[in-house]
Amino acid sequence: MAAPAWLADQIDVAEFAHRYGPRVNGWTLPSSKTKQDRLAQVFAQDGYAIVRAAYDTAAPMWIREVEAVQILRQVLVQTYCLRTDTRGREVIVKRDADDEGVPPGRRRLASPYDTDARWAVKGEDLFWCGYKIHLTESCDTQAGAGAGAGAGAGAGAGRRAGPRPNLITDVHTIDATVPDVKATTGIQQRLAERDLAPGEHYLDSGYPSADLVTAAAKNGIAMVTPLLADRSPQARAAEGFAKSAFHIDWRTRTVGCPEGHASTGWHSVTQHGRDAIVIEFAKSDCGSCLVKDRCTSAARGNRMLTLRPKEIHETTAKARTEQNTPAWRTKYALRAGIEGTVNQALDVTGLRRARYRGLPKVRLQHAFSAAAVNVVRLDAYWSDQPLRRVRTSRLERLAYRLTA
User: How many other CB atoms are there within 10 angstroms of residue 339's CB atom?
Assistant: First the structure.
């Protein structure tokens, strides 16, 4: 405790020890929602009392600079707000996302014990408080090959005479709210700085965008990853005329529709911070078109398209076509190997649980974990002891023996 004597003069120590001595968690809270709200109000009143005392002119200046005081102040600001009721009294109100607003997830404290940790969600069922780690490994399919990198080929390491082991080449730890797509450029830059830039970079669908795929290609990196499908109403319905049904003439800056009508407008705009092109067709052409219902339902009566610049548009179109072919799916299966690497890191180092508090220490933990996995793989390779690739239970092994 930074200032026990000062704190003892500000609070009822016995009452606070009874209220806050045991760590508060879901098991110790009242089951009634009314009682929970009442207790939250008591917590808020106690917190505001301490912060006000710390910022009082009679308090030493250094008190308000104590880390615990600053954390408490931030928790109060993001959780509560002060209001004045009809009688002129100050009341503490819990913040509502719609009315008072709450901080964005990347700035919201998730734990007073680790101020770098953040709450995150994946899908509908997975919630966690902490960090996110991105692992990159080599995935050469032949001994001596140097083209493949990034996604990994599983937890295996062959014998010295066989394929070289896949090794983790980059570890990137960030707070849990950062989308995967924000990590892609940094991963590729770090690999290039270490002369490990991949010829092909296998990633799941959370990492790419058309802009990133185009930029990586200019740097000699082919991103093997699925781009999101066209989300226009026509494409989602799998009928009518989606964007791919229109012919684009980039030289004359015109677009032809499936019925042979030419566009009448080509407008360069900025949408959500990105360059785009809005294509407009004449209302007279669309209004008399016999297949208008398959093309647009817009109230304005004419079809409009939004395109990205030529290079990005063509990259997107090519990728969406290729990723639906059996050959591409067979090639992309290589990416699944990184899941085995994650499982091996979990088994060997307990990667999923942070052993320390604070992003710098967690980054160091993850770097050591990746190094440990690499040592295990190299040892298996040099000692001609292949790693166990498939996990089988005792019951599965017994069943195999009985049927063999």
Answer: 14
Half-sphere exposure of 397 (CA within 13 A, CB side): 5
Enumerate residues 6+ apart whose C-beta is below 8 A from 331. 224
Residues composing the chain: 404
Q: What integer pLDDT is reported at residue 222 of this predicted model?
A: 95
Would the pLDDT of 153 be above 50? no
The Cα–Cα gap between 305 and 280 comes to: 7
Q: How far apart are CA 255 and CA 76, in angstroms?
A: 56
Q: What is the pLDDT of residue 150?
A: 54
216-249 as b/e: b if 16+ CB within 10 A: beeeebebbbbbeeeeeebbeeeebbbbeebebe
What count of other Cβ atoms lies within 10 Å of the Cβ of residue 296? 20
Q: Which amino acid is at 39?
A: L
Tokens 């290589």 belong to 334
Cα separation, 198 vs 217, in Å, equals: 11
Best CA proximity match to 140, nearest among 216, 200, 220, 221: 200
Q: How far, in Å, CA of 280 to CA of 278, rounded?
A: 7
Nearest CA-CA partner of 153 in 200, 106, 206: 200
Q: How far is 377 from 394, CA to CA, in rounded Å? A: 25
**Which 3 state secondary structure label does DSSP give 315?**
helix
For position 155, what pLDDT does the model report? 38
